[in-house]
Amino acid sequence: MDYEKLMEKAIEVSEKAYNPYSKFAVGACVLSENEKIYTGCNFENASYGLSICAERNAIGSMIADGERKIKAIAIYSPSMKNCTPCGACRQVIHEFQTEGGTDVITKSGEGLKICKINELLPEGFVL
Ligand code: THU
């Protein structure tokens, strides 16, 4: 699965976001170690703090399917160029990173920007 395809799926699922409060839609697409794909969008709640980010929604589906390592994750918002994950999602991606380091893919203008989770979250928490 190439990263352009992964981003296409993130764009597609961003259209399913439930975002009546912020109006900010996000889609994420995870590529697991075993080349499986999981998508997720953000979904909000009248009790704002209960809102779930697209990234953690997609990662939850990966976990429920028995996969444990994220090779890459594409993230997209129609409202923002190069929409990078929030701090909480960075820590969650960090938990499931691959040995080579998980690629975080965002869309900056027309092209893709790729960086490693450890660049976005140096010295993430480990137990
Ligand atoms: N959001 C995400 O889905 N992912 C992020 O990394 C940043 C924020 C969502 C949460 C909320 O529904 C909306 O974007 C505005 O914060």
Q: Share of helix among residues?
A: 25-40%
Largest sheet report: 5 strands, mixed
CATH topology: Cytidine Deaminase, domain 2
Number of helices: 4
* Percentage of residues in strands: 15-25%
Would you report the number of β strands? 5
For the record, give the distance between the C-alpha atoms at the N and C termini, rounded to a whole number.
Answer: 32 Å
Number of structural units classed as domains: 1
- Low-confidence segments, given as residue ranges, are none
Bound compounds, each kind once, are: tetrahydrodeoxyuridine
Spatial strand arrangement across the major sheet: 2-1-3-4-5
What is the level 1 CATH name?
Answer: Alpha Beta
Q: What is the string of SSEs from the N terminus onward? A: HEEHEHEEH
Characterize the overall form. Answer: globular
CATH architecture: 3-Layer(aba) Sandwich
Secondary structure blueprint with pairings:
Layout: H1 3-14, E1 27-32, E2 37-41, H2 54-64, E3 70-76, H3 87-95, E4 103-108, E5 111-116, H4 117-120
Parallel strand pairs: 3-4
Antiparallel strand pairs: 1-2, 1-3, 4-5
The structure holds tetrahydrodeoxyuridine.
Brief account:
By secondary structure, the protein is α+β, with helices and mostly antiparallel strands. It contains 4 helices and 5 strands; from the N terminus they run αββαβαββα.
Explain what this protein looks like in three dimensions.
This protein has 127 residues and is α+β, with helices and mostly antiparallel strands. The protein has one domain: Cytidine Deaminase, domain 2 (3-Layer(aba) Sandwich), CATH 3.40.140. The protein contains four helices and five strands. Strands 2-1-3-4-5 form a five-stranded mixed β-sheet. Strand 1 (27-32) and strand 2 form a beta hairpin. It is globular. The protein binds tetrahydrodeoxyuridine.
